[in-house]
Amino acid sequence: MWAIGILPEKVKHFMESDPLRPVPIADFDDQCGECPVWDPATQSLYWTDCVGLKFSRFHEPTGSAEMIRKGFEVYGFRRHAAGGWVVTNPSGLWSWDGTGEPVLRRSEADGEPLSLNDCCTDLRGRLIAGTFFYNPGTNYRLGHLVLFDLDGEARLLDDGYHLVNGIAFSPDGSVLYATDTAARRIYAYDYDVAAGSAGAKRVLVELSGQEGIPDGLAVDSAGFLWSAIWYGGRVNRYTPDGRLERKVELPAKQPSSVAFGGPGLQQIYITTAAHCETLPVMPPGYDPAVGPFGGALFRAEACCPGLPQQPAAIRFSREDA
What we know:
Blueprint: H1 9-17, E1 23-27, E2 33-39, E3 44-49, E4 54-59, E5 64-70, E6 76-79, E7 85-89, E8 92-96, E9 103-106, E10 108-109, E11 112-113, E12 116-121, E13 127-131, E14 143-148, E15 154-161, E16 164-169, E17 175-180, E18 185-192, E19 197-198, E20 202-206, E21 213-219, E22 225-230, E23 234-238, E24 244-249, E25 255-261, E26 267-272, E27 296-301
Antiparallel strand pairs: 1-27, 2-3, 3-4, 4-5, 6-7, 7-8, 8-9, 10-11, 12-13, 13-14, 14-15, 16-17, 17-18, 18-19, 18-20, 21-22, 22-23, 23-24, 25-26, 26-27
């Protein structure tokens, strides 16, 4: 087990001044903490450091944290209904039993390479993920939203994304949300749960160039969206029609993703990133040399319970391996 490290004085003061604000509960100095996933069976929060190649767990009842695996890229993941995990990374879609070696299941869809980032599951257990090729200053190809159906087959839902990040669903599963970080937008789609199909996208949220960029995403039981604002040092909560309802400030400039968990899904967990990404979408005046940037896992009491994260129910065949 790894205990939480020494906390900077600024963070200590932040904790003492307002105990209702997010506080760090584990600090492995994640270069890019991402994709927190709550597992009710073990009462644990799992998350990844996709740059530092670490996969970690925080056990809520004991407050202990540990690194489970090092050296494997995990950009997004979900529990699998049959056990283990479904994992997304720039090589494609993987299955992993949690102890042995991961198995690559899909590397392309409709002729498109599956360089995958974040992911989410619908109410039936299908997996939706985004491809990304974002490389500022080059003529990079645009990414897609990809759906992995229950039979393991992949199909493209939409295109035109610069950098797909947070993906989530409304409480009844009828609206799909997807974030384009580089475009500073969160899109919404009407979604047919029975068919696994999406309508035309519409802009739900658009941030100005002064505010930071939207990254990971979660939806609470009232249908409000929680978006981690990279460069902004906060998590924004939006109404279902896209109006800003509140801001949750952090003592870290690069919050990366959010998830609900804990007893009654009343806690919100926030990953952050210690590695400063210098990108052309940085807000004017943002100083990439002065932190604190992040690297810790934070937790706060949520104002509304969250939604359970559905396990993936994709069936993989022997031929996939």
